């Protein structure tokens, strides 16, 4: 069979699985008791094993197989999570990632066997065996801790869990059974929150148990379970000759079972009360039931997120190129629609107008729909950051807590593809320069763990991504000093600069304030690259900083790139478009309003000085006469917080326009972002407000 | 460069600038259009780059062959054509006075420019083709487009 056609799907899916593995591992590192995550990791490893096996990537399959073994032992509580183990699992992840990249590049998994990792994995399993051996030796008939040695947790559980009320008949049966060498167990089974056919799952549980046990009681009643009249949990009393380990193992092998708690019960008390003597459970249950009592909501959220991840059935994978074609066609349609609206010499009957309006609505909706298809949640970029921060902070010997929010905020795919690198730069900056060392933080009375916040949210037609830290903030004096040292600034100029102006120097090429160049940053290739990249996407970067308290970078990005609302203006005899979202206000002024400040033309607008740029000069528009008009139109645009006035000859109006690249050949022109085709088929250039404004 | 050109017979589109005839490799040509639309001037460009046009929804930069070859400014007439060429990654339009014909030159009829010294800069010239008593200057499009960036 030709596997090539599946290769792409394999690569894509592997990437997704690795990503989810990454997230789960991070989660597990934070909270080693989180069994939901353990199950998810197991599931992913298992899937990867199957996939790579099918594709004939034996090395990958072998590694995942051994991973699975370790994870299975973890699930069975035969070994415990430890930082070492998590590190090892991260190593596995990296190795798998390596395999996948190799498959992407060459189509084969390469020859690296990763024997070192496999050996380490094996050692963990051997540990398990020796642990088990030592455990069985120390096992005493009295109240013993559950399988793994975390007895404290188990103790709380016994108190916390509600037992089934047994009547005299049940007790008699249990007593009789125990006389015959049968043990009675109370088995509580929790189904996965994503489980759809609960009763069917329960049926499988019953069937499995019936192989070696007798079910004598069930709560809710069997009838109710069959009718799905239960939440995700049911409790059974069973009689079995087998020990609980085997029962546990059997039950945990059923899929969509989140949790199994088994308690040995004995009717030994003279008053006939049943005593729970021994309890064992999958590790999964401990944390969950505790959390359920403590924080019901959190667990629901977690369950939701796991369920969300597994719910991928209703999506279609589409090549991004096809979406581009679709978008291009929609763009063409919009151009033609605009052209239809502008056609002259047509009698505008009500029918005609109505049809045109309907067409307008359809094209707008169509455009929205296509844009939505192209929207991707920023999560796809964000989700690699926790791991990155973990590694960086480990390298730097700092402790950093990355808090992310708004991962569901959506951006156009083309933007998503580009913002990864700038964000990495900013996050690294925060880690390296922002957050102080542990000792320093202690001295300053700050918590030892630094916080980096990564937030995304929608703000009008923009998406804002914030990268903030609670570190030392930007030392503007230091920046000033350096700018002077580098010859970017002289003393006199420096004295007059505002804090904001000084911070702008950070974004100049080859500027770095780090005293020491580290591996991560401080080579002066950071912030100017960030700025260039973001501006190329039609966005902007701003900084807020307070010395000693931290800094915050704001990245503002347009929601969509391809189709925008724009204002068409005339400059001389040429038409230009200005993106509407950058426009603050349009005002009329007279030549007298224009004042000169340091050879720069300015106007007063709402008590602030706004520089004026004569577009005809900047754009080198040929003009016959230079006769000053009586009134002039000023389009005031905002770049960040600052206003600049563009002087134009005439306003033509607002229009939905399709941005078209000028192509590689003309890519060097800074003041024009792109072009658009107007209804009459002619081309208008779209001004780059960021490059033009002061 | 000239060696490559000489190695095989090729068809050339011949166009006119003033009285001189120039040829370009026909495989690089996408289409030829009349100059009936407006060219949107783009600021900050060298003068020979006249601006951009809309070619069926695509934005294409156009250059004046006259200005590029150091001649006087174009005067658009009914014969004026824009030859749309496409190289590896870029498309561009060349404004020419008129388009004449397609001529096939084989190896023997192309002379390397090393033998002929013309008044034009050698940079864009791939060779000189001779056919039916005509002399056609063959242009190297890659150099024409990418040089002087």
* Percentage of β-strand residues of chain A: 15-25%
Structural class, from helix and strand content of chain B? mainly beta
Q: For the terminal residues of chain B, how far apart are their CA atoms? A: 20 Å
Number of extended strands of chain A: 23
Q: H/E series of chain B, N to C?
A: HEEEEEHEEEEEEH
Low-confidence stretches of chain A: 133-162, 269-295, 306-312, 514-525
Q: CATH homologous superfamily of chain B?
A: CheA-289, Domain 4
> What's the gyration radius of chain A in Å?
33 Å
- What is the CATH architecture term of the largest domain in chain A? 2-Layer Sandwich
Total domains of chain B: 1
Summarize the main sheet of chain A.
6 strands, mixed
Number of DSSP strand runs of chain B:
11
Shape of chain A: elongated
And the CATH topology of chain B?
Answer: OB fold (Dihydrolipoamide Acetyltransferase, E2P)
| Name of the CATH superfamily of the largest domain in chain A | Histidine kinase-like ATPase, C-terminal domain
Oligomeric organization of the protein chains: heterodimer
What is the mean pLDDT of chain B?
A: 81
Question: What CATH architecture of chain B would you give?
Answer: Beta Barrel
Proportion of residues in β-strands of chain B: over 45%
Query: Taking strands numbered 1, 2, ... along the chain, how are they ordered across the largest sheet of chain B?
Result: 8-1-2-11-10-9
Q: Please indicate the count of domains of chain A.
A: 5
Describe this structure in words.
With 694 residues, chain A is of the alpha+beta class. Chain A has five domains: 4-138, HPT domain (Four Helix Bundle (Hemerythrin (Met), subunit A)), CATH 1.20.120; 151-308, Alpha-Beta Plaits (2-Layer Sandwich); 320-377, Helix Hairpins (Orthogonal Bundle), CATH 1.10.287; 379-558, Heat Shock Protein 90, CATH 3.30.565.10; 563-692, OB fold (Dihydrolipoamide Acetyltransferase, E2P) (Beta Barrel). Helix content of chain A is 47%, strand content 23%. Chain A contains 24 helices and 23 strands. In chain A, helix 2 (35-55) packs antiparallel against helix 3 and helix 11 crosses helix 12 (296-310). The relative contact order of chain A is 0.06. Residues 133-162, 269-295, 306-312 and 514-525 of chain A have low confidence and may be disordered. Chain B has 149 residues and is mostly beta strands. In chain B, strands 8-1-2-11-10-9 form a six-stranded mixed β-sheet. The longest helix of chain B has 6 residues, at 141-146. Chain B has a single domain (2-146), classed as CheA-289, Domain 4 (OB fold (Dihydrolipoamide Acetyltransferase, E2P)). Helix content of chain B is 10%, strand content 46%. Chain B has helices spanning 2-6, 65-68, 141-146; strands spanning 10-17, 20-25, 29-34, 49-55, 58-64, 81-86, 91-96, 98-105, 110-111, 125-131, 134-139. Chain B is globular and about 45 Å long. Chain B is built from three helices and eleven strands. Classes of the chains: A alpha+beta (694), B mainly beta (149). The interface between A and B is medium-sized, with 29 and 24 residues.
């Amino acid at each position: 069979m030709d596997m090539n056609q599946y290769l792409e799907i394999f690569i894509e899916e592997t990437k997704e699985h690795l990503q989810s593995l990454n997230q789960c591992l991070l989660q597990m590192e934070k909270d080693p008791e989180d069994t939901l995550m353990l199950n998810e990791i197991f599931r992913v490893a298992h899937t990867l094993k199957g996939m790579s096996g099918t594709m004939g990537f034996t090395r990958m399959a072998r590694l995942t197989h051994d991973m699975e073994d370790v994870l299975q032992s973890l699930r069975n509580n035969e070994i415990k999570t430890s930082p070492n183990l998590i590190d090892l699992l991260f190593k596995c992840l990296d190795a798998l990632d390596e395999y996948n990249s190799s498959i992407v590049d060459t189509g084969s998994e390469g020859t690296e066997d990763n024997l070192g990792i496999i050996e380490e994995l094996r050692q963990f399993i051997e540990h398990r065996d020796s642990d088990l051996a030592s455990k069985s030796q120390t096992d005493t008939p009295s109240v013993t801790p559950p399988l793994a040695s975390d007895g404290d947790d188990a103790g709380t559980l016994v108190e916390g869990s509600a037992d089934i009320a047994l009547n005299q008949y049940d007790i008699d049966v249990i007593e009789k059974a125990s006389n015959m060498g049968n043990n009675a167990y109370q088995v509580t089974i929790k189904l996965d929150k994503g489980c759809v056919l609960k009763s069917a799952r329960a049926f499988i549980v019953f069937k499995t148990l019936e192989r070696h046990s007798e079910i004598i009681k069930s709560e809710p009643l069997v009838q109710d379970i069959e009718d799905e009249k239960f939440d995700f949990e049911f409790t059974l009393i069973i009689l079995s000759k087998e020990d609980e380990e085997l029962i546990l193992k059997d039950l945990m092998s059923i899929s969509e079972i989140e949790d199994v708690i088994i308690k040995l019960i004995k009717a030994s008390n003279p008053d006939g009360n049943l005593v729970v003597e021994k309890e064992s459970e999958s590790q999964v249950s401990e944390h969950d039931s505790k959390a359920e009592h403590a924080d019901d909501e959190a667990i629901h959220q977690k369950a939701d997120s796991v369920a969300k991840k597994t719910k991928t059935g209703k999506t279609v994978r589409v090549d991004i190129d096809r979406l581009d074609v679709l978008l291009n066609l929609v763009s063409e349609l919009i151009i033609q629609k605009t052209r239809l609206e502008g056609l002259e010499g047509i009698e505008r009957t009500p029918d005609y107008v109505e049809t045109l309006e309907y067409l307008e609505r359809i094209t707008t909706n169509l455009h929205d729909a296509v844009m939505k298809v192209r929207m991707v949640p920023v999560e796809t970029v964000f989700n690699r950051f926790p791991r990155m921060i973990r590694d960086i902070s480990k390298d730097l010997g700092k402790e950093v807590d990355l808090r992310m929010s708004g991962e569901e905020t959506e951006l156009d795919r083309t933007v998503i593809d580009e913002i990864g690198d700038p964000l990495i730069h900013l996050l690294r900056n925060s880690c390296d320069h922002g957050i102080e060392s542990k000792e320093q933080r202690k001295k300053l009375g700050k918590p030892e763990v630094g916080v980096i916040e990564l937030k995304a949210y929608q703000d009008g037609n923009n998406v804002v991504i914030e990268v903030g830290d609670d570190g030392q903030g930007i030392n503007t004096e230091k920046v000033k000093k350096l700018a002077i040292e580098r010859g970017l600034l002289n003393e006199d100029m420096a004295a007059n600069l505002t804090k904001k102006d000084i911070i702008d120097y950070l974004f100049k090429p080859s500027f770095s304030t780090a005293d020491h160049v580290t591996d991560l940053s401080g080579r002066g290739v950071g912030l100017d690259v960030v700025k260039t990249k973001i501006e190329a996407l039609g966005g902007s970067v701003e900084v807020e900083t307070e010395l000693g308290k931290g800094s915050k970078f704001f990245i503002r990005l347009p929601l969509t790139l391809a189709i925008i609302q724009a204002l068409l203006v005339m400059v001389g005899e040429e038409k230009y478009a200005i993106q509407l979202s950058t426009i603050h206000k349009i005002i009329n002024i007279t030549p007298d309003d224009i004042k000169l400040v340091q050879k720069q033309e300015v106007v007063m607008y709402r008590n602030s000085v706004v520089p004026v740029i004569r577009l005809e000069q900047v754009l080198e528009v040929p003009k016959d006469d230079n006769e000053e008009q009586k009134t002039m139109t000023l389009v005031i645009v905002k770049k960040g917080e600052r206003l600049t006035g563009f002087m134009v000859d005439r306003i033509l109006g607002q229009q939905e326009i399709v941005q078209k690249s000028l192509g590689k050949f003309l890519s060097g022109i800074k003041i024009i972002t792109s072009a658009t085709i107007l209804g009459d088929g002619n081309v208008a250039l779209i001004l780059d407000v960021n490059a033009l404004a002061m | 460069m000239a060696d490559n050109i000489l190695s095989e017979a090729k068809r050339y589109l011949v166009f006119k600038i003033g009285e001189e005839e120039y040829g370009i490799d026909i495989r690089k040509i996408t289409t030829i259009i009349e100059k009936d639309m407006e060219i949107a001037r783009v600021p900050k460009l060298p003068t020979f780059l006249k601006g951009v046009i809309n070619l069926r929804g695509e934005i294409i930069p156009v250059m004046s062959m006259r200005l590029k070859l150091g001649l006087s400014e174009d005067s658009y007439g009914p014969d004026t054509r824009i030859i749309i060429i496409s190289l590896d990654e870029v498309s561009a339009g060349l404004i020419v006075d008129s388009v004449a014909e397609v001529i096939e030159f084989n190896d023997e009829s192309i002379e390397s420019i090393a033998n002929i010294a013309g008044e034009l800069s050698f940079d864009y010239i791939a060779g000189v083709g001779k056919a039916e008593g005509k002399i056609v200057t063959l242009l190297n499009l890659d150099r024409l487009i990418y040089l002087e960036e």
